[in-house]
Amino acid sequence: MTNRLALAVMLGGLGIDAFAQPRMLNLEGAPDLNAEHWYSIQAAGEEGAKPIEVYIYGEIGFWGVTSGDFIRDLKAVDDGVSEVHVHFDTIGGDLFDGIAIHNALRALGERCTGQIDGACFSAGSVAVCGAHKVRMADNAMFMIHNPWTYMAGDSTELRQMADMMDKASEGIVASYQHRALNIDDAELRRMINDTTWLTASEAKTHGFVDEVFGEVTPLVNNAALGKILNRYRNVPEAALRLVGEIEPAAPEPEPAPAPEPDPVPATPEAAELAAKLATDCAQAGLTNCVSYLIKASALASADAVQSHFNRAKDVRAACLVAKVPDEAQELIEAGLTGEQARAKLFDKLATSSSQVQIDNKPALPENQSVATAKSVDPDAIYNSRKPKAS
Question: What is the pTM of this model?
Answer without folding.
Answer: 0.53
